[in-house]
Structure prediction request, 198 residues.
Amino acid sequence: MPTKSFFNLEDEKKNVLLRSAICEFSLLPYDKVSVFKIAKNAGISRSAFYYYFKDKEDIYHYIVGLVFEKLAGQLKETKEQNDVFTLGMAFFTQAAKLKGTEWEALVQQLIANMKSNDAAKLLRQMEACAAQTYFSYLKGGLENLNISSETDFLELSFLLISSVIYALRSYLMEGESFSAAEGKLERMFEMIRHGVLK
Prediction:
């Protein structure tokens, strides 16, 4: 989380620093990105960078949060459908629309950089958004699911997020067509929804 000093910066200075970081994280794998280069491209010293962010991981997670908020804000239009599977498909569709935009390279690197615990971090961000009412409308759709606890819901969400990330990787990074990746995601969701046993 950025420091209070970051939030007190003029918008233009904040944007320059964020654009510099986004550019670096778009071009390079996470472990190749350097704070020095982010700071240099933003026109600040390395020590000034640490005045605004604790470390590279801090700004990285802030940027991931910005991408997620961008997508989450666009998902509000699906709320009348009140269904976690519909929400997952809508999230995939919104993220896929970033192909060909200035955000595509960043999303590709975010996916490439993902580790097994990153889906859990994304889930925690979803929970934080739920507290801000982005996903609170899902609570009404839970009676249609075999969910007996909040833990069950979080584990289901983890499976759905992992499936969406897999489909996005296929589309954005492996050259699969949108319809093929979307079909793959629909099949995975059907397996989660109905199970695989006969």
Summary: The domain at 4-54 is CATH 1.10.10.60 (Arc Repressor Mutant, subunit A). The two ends are 47 Å apart (CA to CA). Residues 130-135 have pLDDT under 50 and may be disordered.
